[in-house]
Amino acid sequence: MTLKILAAQSLMKHVLNQGSDEKTIEEFRKINEFAKRYIKYFTSPDPLMAAMTDIEIMPDTKCDEPEYLKMLEENYRLSLSHRYRFISDYLKHLDFYQMGTNINRAITDDDMCGVNTALYYLPRTFGLPYLKVRDSKGLNALQNAILKGNENVTETILEKIPLDKISECLKPKESFKLAIRGDSPKLIRSVLSLMKKEDKLSQMKEGLKIALEGKLSEATLIELLNEIETYTPDEKKLCFDQTTFVLAAPLYSDKMVKKLLNNCDDYLIADFLQYQPAHINVLEAILLQKDINENIPLIFFDRIKNLPTAMKILLLPSNVMFLATGTNNIKIVRKVLEIIPECVKATQLQFKNSIHLNCFEQSLMDRPFKPLIALEILKEIESLEKADIVKSINKQSLYLAVCTNNTPSVKKLLETAPRSLKEEMLAFEEVKKGVLEAAFDNKPCNFEIIEEILTALEALDKKDSEILMGENSLYLAARSNSLQIFRRVKNLLPEDKMPFLFNKRGKGNCLHVAARKAKNLEMIKEILLSCEEEKRVEFVKDTTNHGATAIYAAISSLTYAHIENIKTILEMIPAKDRVSCLKITGGIKGFTPLHLLMKKLSSPANAAVELVLSSIDTIEEIHELLSIKDFDGNSPLDYAFSSVKEIVNNIIGKKRLAEKDDSSSRPHKRLRPISAFEFNE
């Protein structure tokens, strides 16, 4: 069992009862040596430090001295005041060098119990020799306390040193750096109060750099800047070097950066902003930060704003507008546009990165997307000369604006771009997808953008607009479910519209898409009327990759509204071709539309069966449809419920009565009536 005890308290009872004489001290040393055998970690071999420090001891073997361990455990409970009485007596017999070493070690090890105890009993009259003792790094107790940033210990030590002797323990120049590393504003103030002005000036630049490189607290930096504020402009120049802004700007708050800038004149700022470690200056480093504090670049830009134009051109990197756009922050973008001189604005807006994106395109690429930034840049581009506008907008700009659903930017681009550039933008494709197709693919579908693009296409020559229409455009127009859009797209297509009608994307051609949507009669009629009459039946028979016709697609999503879609399709094709359209099998089981309908147990399905069979002219054709087998060898009636079979019988019965009426005027072979049940058997 680990016992947390004070190793040197083993003789405490004896000391308290009889006092501490030479014999007691000697005996203490002996017992201390015994205790060391059981100590895993020992702060110091000196008995005084053992008395001041909590020690973890663990017997490595079976302890053969149980009396000692028992006494150690009991003595652990003695009050701290008993320890102080013993230490006070022991100090009389201690070597000052050993004592100084112990104090140093206690400060270094953050052993505040030991430090406070030793300093409490350290007499002011002869304490200086103890405090002047240096450790292996050449630091004495006061310097170690300053380096640790321990204000209380430092103040206690200073109280033990006469004022006229402080210089013997504290060399201001080296102690100033130690105080900065200790990251304690209070200690920095104390050390600065002991330094001469010329020493402060000689040390401030290096001290400030230590604070910045060490990423110390803002309180420490502000303490140094408060001191610098008391200097003259010429003296301030001695306190900064070119790395100051590079180190400070990305790390600290806007309050600290503003205070730093207030201590520099314009020429000093200009000098520092030109410094480019690793080919990147302060402004670029700030704007490239991932989680940027918007106030910091704004503070820099506010200072640059009032500089002469020549100096602005010199200080602003050629990519500052591009980087500002990348921050996705409208305030920063507006501020940069405000301070960029007019003579270089076009150059800034035309800057392209390694993948050839310019400022406007960069604004469209950022996420989360903010349309105001793109619009702000477009307004600036609009004010440029025509030649500069062409250079500031790429052919993919419109495509990116459409893909980001940025309606204001799409409008502004189509208004601003010259005709030749507009044609290039409308013709741009990415992964075989044009601008119009990209607009249709937006979710939700943005009809305002689609109409803007269609208006731009309609303004072109007919031949040019025909070339620019994508092969999927008619399919996408049908999918949009807007009859007006469909008609406009159809009017832009070449005279031969059949390739566009038969074009399949996803789940079939445009008729499949229209048939799946409920109450879509006008769109279905428009699509079928767009098809040449001699190819209309072929178009209705056209199947998806899974072999489904448009009628089959409507049945797959069947509601009462879809029955009207089926009726419209059947009415738009000749009666003699209806059977051939309904015989086509599809799906993974080889179902005809009738298979699919009869398998559904619903009122819409029953109504659809009646509609489909009623549209067939003869009983023979009905029998032909009812006899088609699926991949499992089943006919539609094999799946039919009794209610459906009754509908089939009624329709066949009505057909027979109609045929009897028609046959009264001409001879014909009499057919025996056959029911659906008999047929199925």
Strands of the widest sheet, in order across it, are 1-2
| Secondary-structure class | mainly alpha
Strand content: under 5%
* Strand count: 4
CATH topology of the domain at 506-511 and 526-681: Serine Threonine Protein Phosphatase 5, Tetratricopeptide repeat
The CATH architecture designation of the domain at 506-511 and 526-681 is Alpha Horseshoe
Task: Describe this protein's structure.
The structure is a single chain. Among the domains are: 1-67, no CATH class; 95-168; 506-511 and 526-681, Ankyrin repeat-containing domain (Serine Threonine Protein Phosphatase 5, Tetratricopeptide repeat, Alpha Horseshoe), CATH 1.25.40. Helix content is 63%, strand content 1%. It has 49 helices and 4 strands. Mean pLDDT is 77; it is low at 1-20, 34-64, 76-84, 89-94 and 668-681.
Write a brief caption for the model:
Helices cover 63% and strands 1% of the residues.
Main attributes of the structure:
681 residues, disordered C terminus, mainly alpha, 4 strands, two-stranded antiparallel sheet, disordered N terminus, Serine Threonine Protein Phosphatase 5, Tetratricopeptide repeat, two-stranded antiparallel ribbon, single chain
Per-chain topology:
Elements: E1 3-5, H1 12-18, H2 22-36, H3 47-52, E2 55-57, H4 66-75, H5 80-91, H6 96-108, H7 112-121, H8 128-132, H9 141-148, H10 151-160, H11 166-169, H12 172-181, H13 185-194, H14 197-213, H15 218-228, H16 233-237, H17 243-248, H18 254-262, H19 266-273, H20 282-287, H21 295-305, H22 309-315, H23 320-326, H24 330-339, H25 342-350, H26 359-365, H27 371-382, H28 386-392, H29 397-403, H30 407-416, H31 419-427, E3 429-430, E4 433-434, H32 435-441, H33 447-458, H34 462-468, H35 473-479, H36 483-492, H37 498-502, H38 510-516, H39 521-530, H40 536-541, H41 550-556, H42 560-571, H43 578-582, H44 593-599, H45 603-614, H46 619-626, H47 636-639, H48 642-663, H49 676-680
Antiparallel strand pairs: 1-2, 3-4
Helix pairs in contact: 6-7, 6-9, 9-10, 9-12, 12-13, 12-14, 14-15, 18-21, 21-24, 23-24, 23-26, 24-27, 26-27, 27-30, 29-30, 29-32, 30-33, 32-33, 33-36, 35-36, 35-38, 36-39, 38-39, 38-41, 39-42, 41-42, 42-45, 45-48
